[in-house]
Amino acid sequence: MKKRYAIFCFLIIFSSYSQQVQFAHKVIKYSTDLGGKQHGIKRVLGKPDAFPQGGSSPNAWIPKNALDGYEFVEVAFEKPQTVKQVAVFENLNAGCVAKIGVDTGNGKYQTVWYRKKDWKTPSYKSTLNSDRSYYFGRKRRKIHKSPDVNVNPAVEYAILETAVANVVAVRVEFNFALIPGQKQIDAIGISDSENPISVDVNSLSKFENLSDPKVLILDEFTPVNPTISHDGKKLFITNGKDGKDEIYSFTKDANGNWSNKFFEKTLNSDNSYNYVEYTAQHFLLKGGNPITKGNTNSGFELFTPTTDGYQSLGAVKISAYNNYDDTADATMTSDGKTLIMAIETDFTQGGTDLYFTNKKEDGTFGLLQNMGKVINSAADEGMCHLLSDNKTLLFSSNGFSTYGDYDIFITYRLDDTWKNWSEPINLGSKINSNDLDGLPFYDENSEQLYYISIDQGSQVMKVIVLPKAIIQTPK
Question: Beta-carbon neighbour count of residue 104 at 10 Å?
Fold first, then answer.
C-alpha cells in the first residue's frame, strides 16, 4: 500500500474575536489534475484534512505538473465576504504559491498577492516524529518499511495589504519549479482577519482527560487483533511469527492479569489471516479461510464455543462478494444479523471503505453497501469494532485529521439505515500517538479499550481505561 498521511475533520480555532472563515466550496476552473477519486481537483474543497499532520494524502489535489510546472485553480465560496487573508494549505513540499487573485462578483480576478523574490513560506510546526517510516500494509497485520518522503508541509498565509469586500471566488497560481519534489494542495481558505487560519484535530476534551494507556506485554508476541470474549474472561490475540498468523487465548489470573496462554487449535484453520474479529454470547467471528475471487466466500467463519474448543457454524457467505485485497476487517451486531466489513471495491470513496450487509432468511448475507461519505474518505478506513448497543462504532483511519498516521475514531449510527453516521471524532492524543494506532476492541465488562500501536518502531498492544459513560455519549 502506498504510504499515506491522510486526515479528515478539523475544528477551526478562532482568535479572541469572531473571525469569519470559509473554505473553498466549489471548483470553477483549474489547469490539470490526475483524475479519479484520489488526488483529484475536488480534494481541494472543504476544510483541510491533511493537516495538522501534513504529508502525502489521497485527500489532496495533485496537478499533472506538480513536480516542476505551472498550475492554477479557481474556487468559489458559499457566501460573499470581506477578505484580508487567503490561506493555501500545502501538505507536501510547500512554498510554491506564486500569485493570488480575488473576484468580487464581476467574473474578473484582481491580483492581491504575489510571491516576492525573497519571500519564504514559514515552516509548518508539526507535532509528528521526523521518522514516519512505519505503516500497516494493506493487510494491516505486519509492519513494513516504506521509503522516506520529503514532506515539508506548510500553510501559505497571504495577508492582503488592503481588505477586499464582497469576495466570491479566489484564483491561486502555482510555480511548482520553486521547490523540488512532489507537491499536493489540501485546502484553500479565506478570512477577514490577519490572524492565521488554524486547524486542529476533531476531538473532545473528555478524551484528553483519560489516564495514560499502558503497554500490555504477553509473552514474546507480536500482537495483532486483541479481542475479548463476551463475558470478559478470555483475551484472544493473533501472534505473527515465522510466516504464520496463530490465534492464542489468555485468561485472567487471581491478580487480574492476563495469563494461562493457550493455543486455540480449533480456530487456526490456515497458516495466514487467523484472527478473531468479534465475539458475542453464543458465537464468534473469525477470519482466515482462503478466498476464491468471484464467489460468495468472504474468508470469514462463525464458531460457537464447546466444552473442548469451538465448533464451526459455517462460512460467512456474501452475495456477489468482491474485494481488491485478499483479506478484510469485520465486525458484527450482537444478534449476528448485520455485518460490517472494511474492503476496497469499485464503489469505495478512494481506498478501503466501511460497508455493511444484512443477513437474509437463508442465512447468507446480501449485497455489501457503502456506509457513506461521512465516515469514508479518499484514504483508508478499517479495523472496525461495533459495541453491543449496535450504534457505537470504533474504527481506524488515515483519511481524517490525525495526530500521526492511522488514528482511532468513533462514530454513532443516527438511524436504522446503517448509512447515516455522525462525523468521526478522534479519540484524542492520550490514545492516538504520533505513529500508527488501530485495531481497537472495547471490553464493555472492564470498560477498557485495547488496541495496537507502533511505539518506537515496535508493534505493541495498549490498554486504557475508558468508561462507558464517555465512549457511548456523542458529546
Answer: 16
Q: What is the CATH number of the domain that holds 15?
A: 2.60.120.260
Tell me the CATH number at 286. Answer: 2.115.10.20
Which of 152, 184, 200 terminates a domain? The answer is 200
d(CA 302, CA 314): 6
Q: What is the pTM of this model?
A: 0.88
In a domain? residue 68:
yes
The residue with cell 478473531 is 276
Phi-psi region of 138 (alpha: psi -120 to 50; beta: other; left: phi over 0): alpha
- pLDDT tens track, the chain, 475 positions: 333 333 333 333 333 358 999 999 999 999 999 888 899 999 999 999 888 888 889 999 999 999 999 999 999 999 999 999 999 999 999 999 999 999 999 999 999 999 998 888 876 655 444 333 333 333 444 444 444 445 789 999 999 999 999 999 999 999 999 999 999 999 999 999 999 998 889 999 999 999 999 999 888 888 889 999 999 999 999 988 777 889 999 999 888 899 999 999 999 977 788 999 999 999 999 998 877 777 898 999 999 999 888 999 999 999 999 998 878 999 999 999 999 999 998 888 888 999 999 999 999 999 999 999 999 999 999 999 999 999 999 999 999 989 888 999 999 999 999 999 999 999 999 999 988 999 999 999 999 999 999 888 888 999 999 999 999 988 8
DSSP state at residue 96: -
Q: DSSP strand E in 210-296: where? A: 214-216, 223-228, 234-241, 244-252, 258-263, 275-279, 284-287
Total tally of structural domains belonging to the chain: 2
Give a yes or no: residue 1 inside a domain.
no
The secondary structure element, H or E, covering residue 206 is helix 205-208
Q: Which residues pair with 317 in a beta bridge?
A: 297
One domain for residues 276 and 392: yes
Comparing CA positions, the residue from 331, 451, 343, 437 lying closest to residue 389 is 331
| Range of the structural domain that residue 386 is part of | 205-471
DSSP assignment of 372-440 equals -TTT--SS-EEEEEE-TTSSEEEEEESEE--SSSSEEEEEEB-STTSS-BPPPEE--TTTS-SS-EEEE
Q: Tell me, what DSSP letter sits at residue 295? A: S
Phi, psi of 49 (to 5 degrees): -130, 10
Separation of alpha carbons 113 and 123, rounded Å: 19
